[in-house]
Amino acid sequence: MDRTDISLIALRRILRATELYGKELANAAKLTAAQFRALQIVGEIGHATPSDIATRMGVSQATITALVDKLVARGLVTRERSERDRRQTNVTITAEGQATVDEAPDALQQRYVRKFEALEDWEQAQIIASLERVAAMLDAEDIDASPVLTTGDIHHGGKRH
C-alpha cells in the first residue's frame, strides 16, 4: 500500500471515529455532540450566558439560541434572568442536565485532549502543523469551525455548513 492510500485510510478513520462517537452520544444521551458540549460548558460552573457558550464553542449566538432551546425543552437547562443585570440571561443546568453530563460516554474530544496534552511540546506542534496542512489540502482553511468535534450540520451565523 502506498503512502497516499495510508493517509486516506487514516483520514477516513478520523472521520469515522467522529461519526461513531456522534451516534454513541445520540443513543446514550439523546443529544448531538454540539448540544452535549453546550451542556458541558453550562455544567462546569452551573450556569453560563449564551454569549459565553457561543464564544467557548466558536459558534454564532443564533446557533446557541437553537441549542439552548432544545436543552430547555428537554429539561436539561433553564433560562433565568441575571440577578446582577436584568438584561442578561443565564443558562443554568438542572439536576437532570448534570446527570446527563455525568452519565454520558467519554467524549471523543475529551479523549483527544487528554492524549494530546500528554504529548511533548514538539510533538503537539508537529501534529498541529500536519493537521493544518491537511485542512489546507482539503481547501478547508476558510471553513468556520469550533473546537467541538461534531458531525452533522452546525449553524454559523445563520448559514449551514
From TrEMBL:
InterPro entries: HTH_MarR-typ, MarR/SlyA-like, WH-like_DNA-bd_sf, WH_DNA-bd_sf. SMART domains: HTH_MARR (SM00347). SUPFAM superfamilies: Winged helix' DNA-binding domain. One of its GO terms (molecular function) is DNA-binding transcription factor activity. It comes from the Bacteria. Residues 1-136 form the HTH marR-type domain. Pfam families: MarR (PF01047). Coiled coil: none annotated. One of its GO terms (biological process) is response to stress. This is Transcriptional regulator, MarR family protein. It comes from Maritimibacter alkaliphilus HTCC2654. The lineage of its organism: Bacteria, Pseudomonadati, Pseudomonadota, Alphaproteobacteria, Rhodobacterales.
